[in-house]
Structures
1.
Amino acid sequence: TLSGRRAIVTGSTSGIGHGVAVALAAAGADVVLNSFTDTEDDHKQAADLAAQYGVSVTYIKADMSKPEECRALIEKAGGCDILVNNAGIQHVAKIEDFPVEKWNAIIAINMSSAFHTTAAALPGMYDKGWGRIINIASAHGLRASPYKGAYVAAKHGVVGFTKVTALEAAGKGVTANAICPGYVLTPLVEAQIPDQMKTHDMDRETVIREVMLDRQPSKEFATTEEIGGTALFLCTDAAKQITGTTISVDGGWTAM
Ligand code: NAD
């Protein structure tokens, strides 16, 4: 059980971040939800999660593209025992055409935010002699695809930074690992299915198998619950010596 532990999950109002937040709350952790908005719904999500699992859940707004807001998130939360760096965005374009502001935003949100939150969270973890840092990287932290220059660079960067974090934290009760999902059925991905069906004139099953999961040998999406379960495992005692590594949840993609 994670009772008495506080987890901060960045970008946790939807998709994988939400799945991880639910898994940690269900295991008894107090949770801090985060995104860059500050809506009624954001706070309602926190209240609902708290009521469902009988843990403390708060929502703290912080824009992960801004270094000082990354660090302020950790401070406002009062530090954390479990830090999940999950916030991320995507943009697809040829290198020659890749908009500079998109490049900068992806590097900031998908990579540099993990540096800032980790820097702010580590001293408190060292004081307690316990901590778990879980970076949500991607199969694109280990493999490349054309037109995803910024995303692939940022995710490879996160995998490298995870290893450095693990080395510096070794022997202090603090582990750092990266989860590398293949395609996960998040609302974002679900929303692309109807368009792809039209474009390719295929039914739902065929477009998923042949277009979307072209590189995922299992021909099945991973789920946000499965990523949550993987993150939860990294918080258990069984995972104490797992540090500085990547865990692929990709249906075999990176075995190829
Ligand atoms: P999503 O769009 O459903 O969720 C992204 C979350 O990040 C949202 O809560 C959003 O509000 C938040 N966010 C975006 N910009 C932010 C900012 N500037 N500051 C704070 N929060 C911000 O996407 P997802 O599919 O759940 O992706 C989550 C993470 O998992 C990302 O890092 C993504 O790269 C990674 N990932 C996703 C897949 C996939 O197939 N869905 C695969 C591999 C890795």
2.
Amino acid sequence: FDRKDGRLVLAHLLFAYVALLLGGVCGMLQSMVKSGSITLPANIGYYELLTAHGVLMALVFTTFFIIGFLYSGISRTLGGSLTGVSRSLGWIGFTLMAAGTVLGVIMILLNKATVLYTFYAPLKASPWFYIALVLLVVGSWLSGYGIFAQYRTWRKANTGKLSPLLAFMAVVTMLLWQIATLGVAATVLLQFIPWSFGWVETINVLLSRTLFWYFGHPLVYFWLMPAYMCWYVIVPKIIGGKIYSDALARLAFILLLLFSIPVGFHHQLMEPGIAPFWKFLQVVLTFMVIVPSLITAFSLFATFELNGRARGATGLFGWLKKLPWKDVRFFAPFMGMLVFIPAGAGGIINASNQMNAVVHNTLWVTGHFHLTVATSVALTFFGIGYWLIPVVTGRRLTKRLNNLGIIQVVTWCIGMLFMSGSMHITGLFGDPRRTDYTTYNDSPESILWMPYHVAMAVGGIILFISLIVLLAAVVGLLLAPRGVEEYPIGEVIDTAEKTPKLFERWGLWIGVSAALILIAYTIPLADMITGGTGSPGYKFW
Ligand code: HAS
């Protein structure tokens, strides 16, 4: 692996792990406060910790890890090293994002940005928190341009050839990010910054939430797609099998690009001010965005089964015995996949209007995203880290470190079982999300919730232990003996059909994506801005 590129990738990964650790400390403390097990010192607020936890884990850990991983993928598959332009953009992006993170975290720790990771108006933070967000987003844009630049250079030199699958997926993921972040950029620049500086007195709450979710939903697929890159391309190689179908994998990614943006209203189903028709339309589109995940499940089962049968497996589940259970590079993402089955089912429940009325704003939703992003995605990222750090540093994943990794994954799963399991159950009893410790004047209903909060805290402690093990493993990897680890990239099975060139007609897909966004959002946004169904009397502010 190119050494200069290795440094860029490693910087992203290590930054991500530090954010994860800090966010993890907040997470554990929070779960203990919420269960009434500890009381925080008077100068630290519960919601302050909750904001730091969400921002550091959901926004910072993910974005840094993803960009590092995407850069590694394009360096490896598009020419063997990054071009000067691409690498420089990567570093500038990294620097801006790091500056944004530091500024944002300072504001949160000063209790000047206790607005949670969704920074819903009318909660107001210091303007510097929003400027920190701008730095984070602009930095990620530049990193994205670096990825596009590398891809363009490769295509020019390889006209008519099909791009490597991993690189194609990196480009789609970044494209999704560029389109999605337009929403958060609009609300931060046009609404939050003028309002928080006091240049305008009010803010159009509904519009700001809508622009946030225009970004917020595709954000979750921006987390998921790199995990899918690992499931589709890396895992087949690790298990000694092959990719079931290049075309199907590309189709899934294009469908994610098209359908993951015009669906933000499924986070706002219980909000007034959006006409039911538009909510219905976006729910239909939400059900469309489930299709690529079903395609993914099908492809993975096909890869596992074909691989198992080629090794002599028989019966319906004989292939399970042929998988390399003791290899953390496989075990971690596999546990992520397994958890994604109930996690995805929970998402489908959320998306259904009537059931959303039951679960919205309860701990069920928190349980949902601790399974999706904090388990399926996080475990996959951990699994990637176990081979990617050795690849970029020229070291070896020793047996001991591998076993440490397995322990880490098992403890993470146990911790999450306690934590997310109790969140799901107590959420169904109406237990609200995002609340400090309270028994609501000892109301019988909330007393019933308390044992689940204690179970959540037990989960939180186990998860924190898992994070410490992860940290030990990462340090171990950085100091491991020198050697050459392979960057595992799967090959497509011989019997797979030819991939149509259509998938790389970017103008077409950007056009269809723009059309869907315009259909789903133009009229509701116009209504919100002109005061029709939105916040009456408000325009942008
Ligand atoms: Fe979600 C809320 C709907 C997926 C994250 N979601 C959230 C929030 C987050 C989040 C962070 O419709 C909270 C935001 C906040 O703070 O308010 N979600 C869905 C739907 C899906 C979905 C329909 N969510 C995700 C993913 C996330 C994520 C992925 C992060 C990475 N979500 C919602 C809705 C809400 C919501 C509503 C709002 C709730 C409210 O009221 O506030 C779908 O994409 C899920 C599709 C997935 C599947 C599963 C496919 C399974 C696969 C694994 C195969 C396994 C194998 C191994 C092969 C259909 C691919 C098998 C081995 C064996 C041995 C069996």
